[in-house]
Amino acid sequence: MADKTMTADEAVSRLESGMTLGIGGWGSRRKPMALVRAVLRAGIGDLTVVSCGGPDVGMLAAAGRVRRLVAAFVTLDSVPLEPHYRAARESGALELTELDEAMFLWGLRAAAHRLPFLPVRAGIGSDVMRVNPGLRTVTSPYDDGETFVAVPALRLDAALVHVNRADRQGNGQYLGPDPYFDDLFCAAAKAAYVSCERIVDTAELTKAAAPQTLLVGRHTVTGVVEAPNGAHFTSCAPDYGRDEPFQREYASTPWPQFAQRFLGGDEQAYRAAVRAWQEERS
Amino acid sequence: MNDLNGPPPPPPPAPPTRAEYCVIACAETWRGAGEILASPMGLIPSLGARLARLTFAPDLLLTDGEALLVGADGTTEGWLPYRRHLDLVTGGRRHVMMGASQLDRFGNQNISCVGDWERPRRQLLGVRGAPVNTLNNPTSYWVPRHSRRVFVERVDMVCGVGYDRAAAHPGAARFHRIARVVSDLGVFDFATPDRSMRLASLHPGVDVEQVLAATGFAPAVPDEVPTTREPTGAELRLIREVLDPGGTRAREVPEPGPATGAAAGTGTAAAGTGPAAAGTGAGA
Q1: Coil, strand or helix: which one is B95?
Q2: Is residue B272 in a domain?
Q3: Residues of chain A found within 8 Å of residue B278, distances taken between Cβ atoms
Q4: SMART domains in the record, alphabetically (chain A) (predicted)?
Q5: pLDDT tens column, A241-251
Q6: pLDDT digits (tens, 9 = 90+) for B45-84
Q7: Which of A177, A223, B28, B198 has its CA at 20 to 30 Å from residue B140's CA atom?
Q8: What's the CATH number where B94 sits?
Q9: B131 and A125 in contact by Cβ < 8 A?
Q10: What is the domain range of residue B77?
């Protein structure tokens, strides 16, 4: 079987400007931040980002890499409003496709099922219809005749997700309480890159964990990246929680200053810069 | 002599605070709801849901705020990650109490942004799950600081669907119901012929003028406005000793000073557009 392991930079080298990129996780939880940092280094831009938004969106928007965002929200959870995303919206720096959470989930499912759309009872009566004039409705062909929103499939050129463990073939395992939509992001994408805290032998995956923790199937995965602490500063339960002091630093530091101090080099340099920052504070 | 008298009687409990009336008013949201998920957003709605669960609504389901369903003592009894939470919403077995950065007379709610959507003056959270919530399960709202900044004539972006818009889509809105709005001043419902907002009860110490001064539209006001009900002794003990012994509820709703009316204000506080609406999605 194919060994799909690669570095974050190798994975990102397969992406191109102008792509539609799905990013897994939720808010400031289990975000593929090492891959996002690699995207920032690679200089790819003009992206359409599809995300349950957190600091992934904030950073890419602050760096001017996002042409359009498709999302129901952007939040840092413990910091409710993402400051860099807010700044981007308030300065008109990006376009937004604002969807309801259920519309977002149904859209990913439609793409994963190779359907053009799925009907959902959400959106009608709300201004989601006003701000998305391209949304269409569909009427039930049965006796009830109800009208639904036909959520278009959220097809992705590529997906980036981060999980706790993976094998070299791309079977990804989550060990925390919530899978979020990560398997759907992978299934909705032409190519999916899975980073993980640790690459293990396939047999190791289910030695101490139930088989239903095997969230991402290798048939949906193009590349596997070992990225210890790769969700930092977002949470990656049970391996680690959110780095709240560092998130506060991110949220309160002007972007150019933050980027210069922490994102100027590669992932090793990032970790060293975070360690230096932590030692300064202690 | 002392033996005959027995131990001294305990001192009477301190009278209920404004925050505690708010907890009671929120708890009442789930009275008679049966075996459904209570989804409270914000501290005082959470205290209300847990109080209801411990007293008059024992069948309620509650989450730990993340992906687990938990009993009153925190015991895990189920799994509810975001995708299943959204499935549960569309199945209707849930009553959510969301925050609101803006709310109008028909219960249209905004948590997305303030100003023009194309380029907002203030970007907030986003619509989150408000559109799907309001078309699928009963919805209520919690406003910790009642002001004209929150209670507005028209919201800038309709996230949660109100009664006037629901009426325009009778098919799609057949499960639409906004049960109540609880603020730090009182309780509101939509029991009027045109389903516009009505003052249902005032918290003790608040008068009608105070509510009208802090509301950006004229709610219906009945001739006799009831007072929000008193907590029972057992409820007060649960709030104070079990659910919130640290007294954090007073940070969300401070006790009004002797000069009443301070809480009503005209909305200079940032509460209306701030993090009060955090976690207004389906699952958070």
Answers
A1: strand
A2: no
A3: 75, 80
A4: CoA_trans
A5: 999 999 999 99
A6: 999 999 999 999 999 999 999 999 999 889 999 999 999 9
A7: A177
A8: 3.40.1080.10
A9: yes
A10: 12-252
